[in-house]
Amino acid sequence: MADHPVDEKLPPLKMATTGLQHVAAMYAGVVAPPLIVGAAIGLSATELTFLTGACLFTAGLATFLQTLGIWKIGARLPFVNGVTFAGVAPMTAVVASTDDKSDALPIIFGAVIVAGVLGFFAAPFFSKAIRFFPPVVTGTVITLIGISLLPVAFGWAQGPDAAADDYGSATNLGLAAITLVIVLVLRRFTRGFVKQIAVLLGLVAGTLIAIPFGVTDFAPVADADVVGFPTPFHFGAPQFQIAAIVSMCVVMVVSMTESTADMLALGEIVDRPADEKTIAAGLRADTLGSAISPVFNGFMCSAFAQNIGLVAMTKIRSRYVVAVGGGFLVLMGLCPMAASLIAVVPRPVLGGAGVVLFGSVAASGIQTLVRASLDKDNNVLIVAVSLAVGIIPIAAPEFYHSFPENAKIILDSGISTGCVAAVVLNLLFNHIGGRSREAEDVTHPMEAGEEITEASRERGHAVTPGTT
C-alpha cells in the first residue's frame, strides 16, 4: 500500500527547494516579533541579531516537533511553527512596565515557559472541541485565516517601513505586482517541479529585478557572522511575575485556538482530516515548543497559517518537506550569514508572493464551505455573522479601542473571535433545542423558511417551519 502523500519522501533536490520555499514564505513573520520587542527594549544591533537568530533556531526545533513528532507530540502534518504574532502586544506591554529594561526579556521568558507548560497539560482537553467544528465552522475559520493574512501581504507590498518616504510608492507596488505576475505565469505555463516551486522562483526573480531600483539591501549579509549559537538564557535567568504570566496564558489560549483552526484547515487540504487525537498531539507540539523556546532565547511558538497557503497551492503535502524547512531554520539560527540571505528579499517582493499564498488559504475555506449545505438558512447566517465578526479587526482596527488590554489580545484576533462566533452560532442554530434545524431551506438568509410538501398541497395549506 502506497504511503499517504503526507508521509511521502521526495527526491533530495525537490525536498530541499520546496523546504526552502516554506522558509521564504514565513521568514518575515518569524523575525518581525523579535525585531519589534528588541527595538522596544533598546537592544544593540548585535543583540538584536542574536535574538532574531534565536527565534529562527527555536522555530526550527518546534517545526521538527510538529512534523516528525515524538510519542504523542506532533500532528505529523506539513506544519511550519514559528513565533506567534499574538504575543507581540503583551510582550511590548511587559517591556513598557519594566523599569530596568534588562529584566524585560527574563520576565517574558519566564511567562512563556509557564504558559507553555500549562498549555501542554491542557492540550488533550482543548482538543475535545473538535466535535464543535463541522464544515460550516471549519470553512468559515479557514476563510478567515486567509482574509486575515491578506493585509500582511498588502503591508509588505508597500515596503518595510510605514514611516519611510517610499512607503506605498509606485516602485514598491510595481515590484509586488511584477512578482505576482511572475508567480502566476509560472503556475499557468509551466509543469511539474518548476510549477511547484513557482513562489520560490518568483521571489528570486523579484529580488533580482529589484536590484536596479535600490530596494535590495545586501548589508545584512556583509555584517552577519558566519557561525553563532543561541546560548541558553543569554539574557539572564527567567523571572516569574504574575501579571506577565497571566497575560501570556491568555496569548496561549488564543494561539491554541488558532492552531486548532489551522490544523483543521491543513487536514482538509492534505486529505487527512485532523481528528481529536491529531489536534491534541499538534497542540502538545506547539506548547512544548513554546516552553522550550525561552531556554534558547526564543518566544512563544505557533503554527504558521501562511504556509498552509503554500501547501494548498503547490499540492506538495509531504511533512518531510516542511521538516527540511525546519532544518533550514535551525541552520539559519546557527549561521547568521545564512539567515541574512533570506533577509535580502525585499518586502514588496514578499508581498507580491503573499497575495497568492494567503489568497489560496481563503479559497480553500470557500471550498470547504461548499460542503456545508449553504442552502440552509441556519448555515448561511452562521457564516455571514462569523465572517463579519472575524473581519472587524481588519475593517475597523480601532473598534475595540476602549476595551482592556488583556481583552484586546483576544478581540484583535479576527481568527479567534470568528472561530468562537461560528462555534457558538452552530450550537445555537443546529444543536440546542432538541433537534437540528438544518432541514429548513430558504432562498434568502433574512426570510423565514417554508417547506411545501405534496401532502400539504392536497390539504390546501403549507407546513410552517419546524413542523412535521
Q: Could you give a quick summary of the protein structure above?
A:
This protein has 468 residues and is an all-alpha fold.
What are the SSEs and their pairings?
Elements: H1 12-41, H2 45-67, E1 81-83, H3 88-97, H4 104-126, H5 135-158, H6 170-189, H7 192-196, H8 198-210, H9 219-223, H10 242-269, H11 276-292, E2 301-303, H12 306-314, H13 319-334, H14 336-343, H15 347-370, H16 377-395, H17 405-411, H18 414-430, H19 454-459
Antiparallel strand pairs: 1-2
Helix pairs in contact: 1-2, 1-3, 1-13, 2-11, 2-13, 4-10, 4-11, 5-10, 5-15, 5-16, 5-18, 6-8, 6-15, 10-11, 12-15, 13-14, 16-18
Transmembrane segments: 24-44, 50-71, 78-98, 104-126, 133-157, 169-186, 198-215, 235-254, 320-343, 349-366, 378-397, 409-429
Organism: Streptomyces parvulus
InterPro entries: NCS2 (IPR006043), UacT-like (IPR017588), Xan_ur_permease (IPR006042)
Structural class of the secondary structure composition? mainly alpha
Number of helices: 19
Counting DSSP E segments of at least 2 residues, the number of strands comes to 2
Strand content: under 5%
Reading the helices and strands in chain order gives HHEHHHHHHHHHEHHHHHHHH
**Cα-to-Cα separation, first versus last residue:** 48 Å
- What sort of overall outline do the alpha carbons produce when their principal axes are compared? globular
Low-confidence stretches: 442-468
Radius of gyration: 23 Å
- Give the neighbour order of strands across the main sheet: 1-2
Helix content: 55-70%
What is the average of the pLDDT values? 80
Biggest beta sheet attributes? 2 strands, antiparallel
